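Bench log. Compound arrived from synthesis this morning; before running ITC I wanted a structural hypothesis for how iron/sulfur cluster sits in the protein. Inputs:
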Amino acid sequence: MTVSVNRELCYGSGECAFRVPSVFTAVDGLGAVVPGREDADGDPEVREAAERCPSQAIALG
Ligand code: SF4
């Protein structure tokens, strides 16, 4: 199980990095997973960030 950001769907709102900066960051203006944190999909905050992503770009599992 992993967490990932689909950069084709993301439009760079920055909400994921704002909510969970330990797991999400921005790369070239788009959301990205902090290297080494791809296994954080079980974190409730990560799940909430995925649910609240306005473009549903965050995939879990
Ligand atoms: S919350 Fe969604 S749209 Fe916004 S930066 Fe993160 S992945 Fe992209």
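What the model suggests: The mean pLDDT is 97. The chain has one domain: 3-60.
ITC booked for Thursday regardless.
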